[in-house]
Amino acid sequence: MAYRIPSMGFNFSLFQTLFLFSTLTFPSLLQIKLPHSAGEFISAIISLLLLKPVSLVITTNFQEKKSMVFSDQSLFHYALLTFFLIGPPTFISLRFLQAPYGKHNRPGWGPTIFPPLAWFLMESPTLWLTLLLFPIGQHATNSKALILMSPFLIHYFNRTCLYPLRLYLSTTQRNNKPASGFPVSVALMAFGFNLLNAYLQVRWVSHYKENYQSDGWFWWKFLAGVLVFLLGMWINVWSDGVLVGLKREGGGYKVPRGGCFELVSCPNYFGEIVEWLGWSLMTWSCVGFGFFLYTCANLIPRALANHKWYLDKFGEDYPRSRKAVIPFLY
User: Fold this and answer.
1) Are residues 203 and 140 in contact, defined by beta-carbon separation less than 8 angstroms?
2) % helix / strand / coil in the chain, to the nearest 5?
3) Contact between residue 187 and residue 113 where contact means Cβ atoms under 8 Å apart
4) Is 68 helix (H, G, I), strand (E, B) or coil?
5) 218-255 burial, b for 16+ CB within 10 Å, e for fewer?
6) Which runs of E-coded beta strand occur in 101-257?
7) Three-state SS for 137?
8) Distance between CA 87 and CA 294 in Å, rounded?
9) How far is the C-alpha of 137 from the C-alpha of 148, rounded, in Å?
10) How far apart (Å, rounded) are the C-alpha atoms in residues 166 and 209?
């Protein structure tokens, strides 16, 4: 007689962890069927981290083998569905409640850590998970796949390594202390999203995209997308530089001026939205488009909140002609 026990989020996360540990450590003793490939092994670990449904078939007959039933393709489909489902509630919730860091920092969200460290840790899955999963994809040696993955890695090398370093230097060069810590709870949520997103992007580029050789439009889509991506990245990096420079000067928040700041309050967010629009053009996929939509759902409400914060704080000294995030429009 067999019982099928589906994982139920956090209620079974400890059970899943112990089961995976025992599977890897005592496979012969427990008579459990191990994953056949490195891809299945890594995907199983990711499934546990993301708390995706994993079915465990356990029998009461000790002479029958216990087995872990797992499919990377099922995980990919569940993850992609999750990607689209979390966008609307994210947008709606952020219209009423902003993540408590930076300008919107407030107590009541638990312990905090040093902001540069938070940025490094929570963005890091986009690098190490990409580098871990890409080599096991069926297109790992395809030059088009390697080129297509490069803009994603370039952006997140900046966001994971260079941006936190600039933040750190801004607080040490003049002995400036950060205005506030970064809530661990928010960093953990961002870490989880980056696990999900990195898994989807890298598995699609390196494994599930099927028409690299037959896609006659590949280079046209890539070139159009990479131009949009580079424009957005330039706006994003330049804007971050201006904001970090103001922090380095000390003396509290100031009105940022010059360049794209004359058009919108949050050109850093606008630049990132443009980047992932370019990425969706390059990949020409539901995965890329889903990332673009989620970026809009996440950053547009925060840009609106930042715009209102600037108006409330600086009053008549703040340029009324500026929009929040989309030049001339919004």
Assistant:
1) no
2) 65, 5, 25
3) yes
4) strand
5) beebbeebbebbeebbebbbbbbebbeebbbeeeeeee
6) 112-113, 182-183
7) coil
8) 5
9) 14
10) 36
Whole-number Å distance between alpha carbons of 36 and 57 = 17
C-alpha distances out from residue 118 to 157, 182, 184, 211, 273, Å: 15, 7, 8, 38, 22
Three-state SS at 311: helix
Q: How big is the chain, counted in residues?
A: 330
pLDDT of the chain, 330 residues: tens digit per residue: 433 333 333 333 333 333 333 333 333 333 334 344 555 545 544 554 444 433 333 333 434 433 334 688 899 999 999 999 999 999 999 999 888 888 888 888 899 999 999 999 999 999 999 999 999 999 999 999 999 999 999 999 999 999 999 999 887 766 666 667 899 999 999 999 999 999 999 999 999 998 898 889 999 999 999 999 999 999 999 999 999 988 888 778 899 999 999 999 999 999 999 999 999 999 999 999 999 999 999 999 999 999 999 999 998 899 999 999 999 999
Q: 20-36: b or e for each residue (b if 16 or more CB lie within 10 Å)?
A: beebeeeeeeeebeebe
The CA angle 196-213-44, to the nearest 5 degrees, is 25
What is each CA distance from 316 to 217, 246, 319, in whole angstroms?
A: 51, 20, 7
> Are 228 and 281 spatial neighbours (Cβ–Cβ below 8 Å)?
yes
Residue 185: name the closest of 106, 127, 130, 244 by CA: 106
Question: Is the pTM higher than 0.70?
Answer: yes
Q: What is the DSSP string of 168-192?
A: HHHHHTT-PPPSS-EEHHHHHHHHH
Quote the Cα angle for 143-152-118, to 5°: 145
Strand partners, 6: 55
β-bridge pairing 66-69 and 32-33:
parallel
DSSP lists the bridge partners of residue 113 as 182
Which residue bears the tokens 């966008």? Answer: 87
